[in-house]
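Example with several molecule types.
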Amino acid sequence: MKARILNHDQVLTVVDLLRARGYEVIAPFCRDEESRRDTFFDVVTDDNRAHVRVHVANPFYPPKRYVLPHIERLFRIGTGSGTLDIQPTYEHPKRAIFGIRSCDVAGLWHLDRFYLGREFRDTYYEQRRRNLFLVNVVCSDPEADIADECFCVCADTGPAARDHFDLQLMDLHDGEFMAVAGTPAGESLFSEAIFRRGTAAHVERRRSLLADVRKRFKTTTSWFPATVRYVSQGKILEKTWEEIGNRCLECGGCTYVCPACTCFTVTDRKVGPDEIERVRIWDACALGGFTRMAGGHNPRKAVHDRRNRRFFRKLAHYFIQRELSMACLGCGRCAAVCHGDVGMPSVVEMIRRATGETERLSATAGEEQP
Amino acid sequence: MSAGAENIYLPKLAVLDRVQDEIAEVKTFYWHFEDPEEQRRFGRFRPGQFAQVSVFGTGEFPLSLPPSPTEGQTFFTARQVGSCSGALHALKPGDQFAVRGPYGNGFPMEDYYGKNLVFVAGGIGLIPLRSCIIYALAHREKFQRIQIFLGARTVRDLMYREDLRRWEQSAGVECHLTVDRADPAWKGHVGVVGSLFKKPGIEVPVDNTIAFVCGPPIMFRFVIKDLLNMGLPERCIVSTLERYMKCGVGKCGHCCIGVAYVCVDGPVFTYEQIKKLGEDI
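Resulting structure tokens for the full complex:
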């Protein structure tokens, strides 16, 4: 991968360059100076360009919606002409996301594997994804970038993404940024005058900064691999799932903010006298109606069955092998939004405590036997 | 991209030809695709597969395919339970709707050549099994004994009457019916479907046998117990699972049980697999 250096005060020029090349650029903003956690992704315009934030808390509403809108029209169905007329409606904007964090880059890659892998390719996702340009910004400022709940170091997705971006920017905190190209499209930007060649000292500075940032995370969930093993082997007791389920309020918030959740429902709605549209809407396995069939039979009745489902889907070996990535990227959003404190880090901890305990007990019982 | 050539969610227009009453709230809908090419392509479905049916303005839902590919007909049998099946029931001959599919693995009928086939169905569980039964009878020489055990709540709940009459009269198949509650006119067996296995004169082959079981969850559990007690191995019992589904192609996530997507990895599973999935039937 090629790398270049640019000046700190020219980093937003990357936004301008992309806009000049015809991209609609999405970037993170902050609602106001005081509420530093109230951040959001929005389209960059001439008016708000100066307010784009490089160091910013990752917005709760993930950039996933630019490839999978939370409500997306699939078809327009005309009913006026005597015969039904089904017209698929595709959107394939030339779009760039500036300032996407490493966890969310990994999230998009997970969605790529899921929607575009295997036998059936999702046309709508593919169309939106094809021209999407990703400018990853490495979380290098422990104060501004890293929230209390972040644990990408444990999910091995950050703080600096290793792949799946077009361009990666990292603040070297000495008046310079390092830019790394991940694709030929990203590399093509290096012909611009703002980029210059770096030195071995720049590389070393990047390395030492990252080594330092990795120590600044407040949430660590080092029991991921053990939890993956426990979940995959079905070792987690029903009682533990019940404990987790008892704390779930079934609000669906965790799935709404998750950059790796893929489930959706499909519904029709009337939009005019002679027109119906079919839309797909984000759905959540946390919700009771998710598996309820016509007639009322629901194979997943209890709340803890649904919690079990969510964590099984995210952590079981089978899915990791099939989608080539764990469906948790350590962004910490679920931990931040969950009212019952059963986001991923807490669940991993609860499973560690309960299952580790059981394993120890059975090991001791084994020793006592003659 | 050409409009929808590879769009996995795009259904194709179909026309309802005629509707036939089966039992209370259950009707059979005969239909065909407007595009003859699509009709030919779809017609190569396997027994046990399903389709996604769209009634625009209401939504889309999965339905089993009761016809056998050997019949050259396309139809659905549906009970009126929810909004989509309700909208389907409201359609009149000549009305348009849309279908996409066929989806799912289906029953691997070729793997069952040379075996005894035992079909056990309860109520509308006969809908997906009808396809296999017709298919097996169309390839009668490929199989050993064929037995059908069919249970219904009352005489009025016995569906596919014409087929039943044919099967009862056919020499190549042993067809046994039972009802939970008889009316005075009923001369046949009374009791749950599992009680047929113990009826004098009935002998269910255990070696080299595949048992197809479909029906309500409670019937499923009891029949499985009976079959296992008779000595049938778990891998020789097959069924098709039903789940809420929105896409049919492994994306929407609703039908996922344990590690399996019912829509692409199923809906046909052996009892050995169903047990491992670890969720209610």
